[in-house]
Design goal:
This protein is of the alpha+beta class and about 190 residues long. It is about 40% helix and about 15% strand. GO terms for molecular function: phosphatidylinositol binding; superoxide-generating NADPH oxidase activator activity.
Length: about 190
């Protein structure tokens, strides 16, 4: 059976590599200091392969990520077949208590991530989304602070190191190539 035919016959979810994020939720916020104080969201990510790990993202990184998604997938910015309706993104707040602003953003960002990870599989397979939800080296080195809302704060600190799956990346590129080839090459019998 040819690969494009196989892709049409299997469910989209079954085609996803095991390291693809399928859910993400903010578990906590942590204050960071540097040039100025800011808050990072501690996000628990679950993958199709049942791995769980924590990533740390500032609102600024979410904002930049959303702008790049809009450039890549928004129907307003694209004329090709690969467009989709992206979930609404919570806007910037310019004044107020930083902790209160971060706490207010939790349900909004949770909703954003939930809707984002429910988009079609071809969007989930995009490197931009995969890299945003990927646990990088700085994420894996951080030890989360005890979460007041968690009954067992020590359970939050246990993470699984996710290793990039080269084979699934190559398979992904092949699948994309096959799909694009089928779209671009016209059948001579037509």
């Amino acid at each position: 059976m040819s690969l494009p035919r196989q892709l049409r016959d299997e469910s989209d979810f079954d085609q996803l590599p095991n390291n693809i994020p399928i859910s993400a939720a903010i578990a906590d916020i942590e204050e960071r200091t540097g040039f100025s104080a800011y808050y990072e969201f501690v996000i628990e990510v679950k993958t199709k392969g049942a791995s769980k790990y924590l990533i740390y993202r500032r609102y600024r990184r979410f904002f930049t990520f959303n702008e790049k998604l809009q450039e890549r997938f928004s129907a307003e910015n694209q004329t090709g077949p690969y467009t989709c309706l992206l979930p609404p993104f919570p806007g910037k707040v310019f004044m107020g208590n930083k902790k209160e602003i971060a706490e207010k953003r939790i349900p909004e960002l949770n909703s954003y991530m939930k809707k984002l990870l429910c988009l079609p599989t071809w969007v989930l397979l995009d490197d931009l989304i995969r890299m945003f939800f990927y646990q990088d080296e700085s994420d894996s080195k951080q030890v989360p602070e005890p979460c007041a809302a968690c009954p067992h704060p020590e359970s939050v600190s246990k993470t699984t190191k996710v290793k990039p799956d080269l084979l699934s990346s190559l398979e992904l590129r092949y699948i994309h190539f096959q799909i694009l080839s089928n779209l671009l090459i016209k059948d001579p019998s037509n």
